[in-house]
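ok, trying the design again with the full structure, not the truncated one.
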């Protein structure tokens, strides 16, 4: 019997070594097509999650601006909210309210442009903070607003037509 097992092992070993077949072109093409379909489905599923995350970033930053404005008004001698209309950009808001909003890199702009508008009504200082999506794609162009009367973040429709690009948020 040991001789027979040796013959079987030699036979199988020889078949494995002698077999030099690879994948056929058709098999490779099928695998590439399947991987391409799966990658396409993954990318389609990824975009809404990314936009949802960016929306939450804007809402969180507007809440930070609200808190920083409240602190600024509390600490200021004249009891008004911070406003710098000459430098109403992410960098200007950062320097005035000691925040760290994204200002973007030199090669890619920030995802959101933040603006502050202050007004006085009946002797009371008020403000509106707006986050506007920095995109030319009308599908993802959005505005988020927050004002000093209502600290909840709301979504305002982006103006379209001749008024596109103007702020949709109004001071309370």
């Amino acid at each position: 019997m040991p001789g027979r097992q040796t013959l079987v092992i030699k036979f199988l070993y020889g078949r494995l070594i002698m077999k030099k077949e690879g994948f056929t072109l058709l098999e490779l093409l099928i695998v590439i097509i399947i991987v391409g379909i799966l990658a396409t489905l993954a990318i389609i599923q990824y975009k809404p999650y990314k936009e949802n995350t960016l929306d939450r970033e804007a809402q969180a930053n507007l809440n930070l601006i609200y808190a920083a404005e409240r602190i600024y008004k509390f600490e200021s001698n004249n009891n008004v909210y911070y406003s710098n209309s000459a430098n109403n950009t992410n960098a200007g808001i950062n320097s005035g309210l000691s925040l760290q909003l994204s200002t973007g890199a030199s090669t890619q702009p920030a995802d959101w442009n933040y603006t502050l508008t202050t007004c006085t009504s009946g002797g009371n200082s008020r403000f509106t903070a707006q986050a506007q999506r920095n995109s030319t794609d009308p599908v993802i162009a959005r505005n988020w607003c927050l004002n000093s009367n209502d600290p909840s973040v709301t979504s305002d429709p982006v103006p379209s037509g001749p008024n596109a690009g103007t702020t949709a948020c109004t001071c309370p």
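Keeping the full-length input from now on. DSSP finds three helices and four strands in the chain.
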